[in-house]
Every structure is written in C-alpha cells, then in structure tokens.
Amino acid sequence: MASAGYSVRPLRAPVLGSIIVRIFIFRRQNPTASSTTESMVPSMRVFIHAPEEYWIGRVMKVYGDTLSAAKRNIYRSDKARASYYRHISGKR
C-alpha cells in the first residue's frame, strides 16, 4: 500500500482478547531534507482498537464506575483525545 510520500507496510494485527493492535511502519517524505538520501524519514503509527463493550467493562472494573459513569468517562476521554490529535496534527 502506498500513497503520496508514504510507503506503508502493515504488520500482523495480533488480537489480545478483544483488543486489536495494528502497526504501520512507513517512510514519509521529509519536507526539510537537503538531499534525496535524507528525503525519506522512518516513521511508525500504532492503532489500538477494542469494542465499546470491552472498554466499558474495563473502566467499570478498574475504576469501580457504574455503567453510566463509565460511558460518560469514556466519551469525555475520547473527546479530549480527538481534540489533542486535531491540535497537534492540524487534521480533523
């Protein structure tokens, strides 16, 4: 899989219970490179995903939250994470 400036190589997606981990190793274009040998920078992205039922159960177990409190805390955490991502990346 490749796109403009990216050479993406997905690794195996191990399943840890209900959690799915995807790791992408790629080389991205370095816009400040002075030569072609410096133009590609090694990079890695890690995506971790779990079903909502797993999240809720985990939050309830770890923090002792009720069902409604667990859902509220997960929503708040996801909203903060999305805001942080938008801030540092300039993307939506």
Q: What is the H/E order?
A: EEEEEHH
Helical content band? 25-40%
List the total number of helices: 2
Count of beta strands: 5
**N-C termini distance:** 22 Å
Proportion in β-strands: 25-35%
Tell me the overall shape: elongated
Judged by helices, strands and strand pairing, the structural class is alpha+beta
Write down the Rg. Answer: 18 Å
Low-pLDDT stretches: 1-8
Mean pLDDT: 76
What can be said about the biggest beta sheet? 5 strands, antiparallel
Keywords:
disordered N terminus; 92 residues; alpha+beta; elongated; 5-stranded antiparallel β-sheet
Q: Explain this structure to me?
A:
This protein has helices at 52-63, 67-89; strands at residues 2-3, 6-10, 15-16, 19-29, 40-49. The chain is an alpha+beta fold. The longest helix has 23 residues, at 67-89. The protein starts with a strand and ends with a helix.
Give the topology, please.
Layout: E1 2-3, E2 6-10, E3 15-16, E4 19-29, E5 40-49, H1 52-63, H2 67-89
Antiparallel strand pairs: 1-2, 2-4, 3-4, 4-5
Helix pairs in contact: 1-2
In short:
With 92 residues, the protein is an alpha+beta fold. Helix content is 38%, strand content 33%.
